[in-house]
Sequence to fold (230 residues):
Amino acid sequence: MNQSRKLCQLCGLPLTEDQSFLSLLGIMSTDSNNLCEDCCNQLVLINDIFCPNCGRLQATPEMCFDCIRWQNKGYPLLEHRAIYQYNDVMKTYMQQYKFNGDFLLKDLFNHDLIRLIDSIDKDIVVPIPVSHYTMQTRGFNQVSGMLNGQTLSDILSVTASKKDHQSQFGRRERMNRQQPFALSVSSQLVVGQRILLVDDVYTTGNTMYHAANLLYQAGAKTVKSISLAR
Ligand SMILES: [Zn+2]
Ligand SMILES: [Zn+2]
Fold:
């Protein structure tokens, strides 16, 4: 086995012996034996000061303006947690994984995600679904793909059509968009459940709050959420 021939899964540069050594010592947070030092250094863990409701990395531990707005609209808060800041290296990761169909990247953050899921009290873990169109074109749900080894409850489906796809809308329109999800199971399976929603990225909160709203209407006891990036 020649360790030095391994390549960084994000930038494609060869990995050095030093990096295997760093991961042996547990210095790097993720499955870093697959990432070069440069890419690892660019990952920003959200583990210090963040918004207590959406997990946004920020300078104070107070709830952020966006979350106050959700609260004022009457939505039960999500206590969302994210692992990494959604910066350039995370955008590169998402791009390669989701849009170039590089399914080998699915396990890169698996341990990080499973560890966070294990730390949260819940009855079921529900991945945010992708649309029928995305399933046809991409071929997989990127959220489920990252959660290998975790039991998932696919109880949500996407009802919005392709033209509603959020990338063509601005922030304000996204906030006002109609409910994009439907229950794909009987609501009896939701009643009284403590549900943990999982998405790849939390941006406006729109996706999570729509999903949570639907689940609360179906009788969920609590709905919390996590994402890989924020
Ligand atoms: Zn790299
Ligand atoms: Zn917030």
